[in-house]
Amino acid sequence: AQTVTQSQPEMSVQEAETVTLSCTYDTSESDYYLFWYKQPPSRQMILVIRQEAYKQQNATENRFSVNFQKAAKSFSLKISDSQLGDAAMYFCAYRESGYALNFGKGTSLLVTP
Amino acid sequence: DAGITQSPRYKITETGRQVTLMCHQTWSHSYMFWYRQDLGHGLRLIYYSAAADITDKGEVPDGYVVSRSKTENFPLTLESATRSQTSVYFCASGAGTGLSGANVLTFGAGSRLTVL
Fold first, then answer.
1. Distance between CA B39 and CA B29 in Å, rounded?
2. Which residue of A has its CA nearest to B50?
């Protein structure tokens, strides 16, 4: 299985500040999909943002945006204007032309007032 | 109710017992998946199914059995539960392999299984 690496087990950010979560992956494919999922204490897996590899433009969803560096195989998530409700575990995931997602081990985000 | 539902949400069992976790989706999605989540491991794929009567192994299939006689149901059975199978199990479904809305995986709420 392709490897997805999240090198930050835990991150902390103050409310209203910006934080970036890192993700790198390993693949020999040219077309694939990348995702960030959020898992709050309720355990529900919530899709935050998605990116298709052949699209050079970085995806944006409201306060969430990505920095997709295809050559570097990097897919970081930036959360702007952090809110208390952003506190959660964040998982980076990769998918090829098949259907199963490969997940990283997650980054726990703490948001302080 | 529309969506993807897992049952039971919580289950405690003993070593050696058979346990079945149920997953039901109302969208008629072709693809369904079972993942397990353990601290320090993220989510790991156990089994997946591309359609009724088509299943295949994921990364950690040992000790698990799946079936898919109907498109909407994808039960996961632990034939003889072991303590190492204590975990949170997630079912997910998706319509296809592209990136458009229906093809993005949607997850159930998870089933926490404890094997004593």
1. 29
2. A99
Q: Are strands B10-13 and B111-115 parallel, antiparallel or unpaired?
A: parallel
Residues B87-110: what's their mean pLDDT?
81
Residue A6 phi, psi dihedral angles, 5° rounding:
-115, 110
pLDDT tens column, A2-60: 689 999 999 999 999 999 999 999 988 888 889 999 999 999 999 999 998 888 899 99
- Residue in chain A closest to B111 (alpha carbons) equals A43
CA distance B97 to B19: 30
Q: End-to-end CA distance of chain A, in Å? A: 39
A101-113 mean pLDDT: 95
C-alpha distance from B41 to closest chain A C-alpha (Å): 5
Tokens 């302080």 correspond to A112
Confidence of residue A97 (pLDDT cuts 50, 70, 90): low
Are the beta carbons of A102 and A6 closer than 8 angstroms? Answer: no
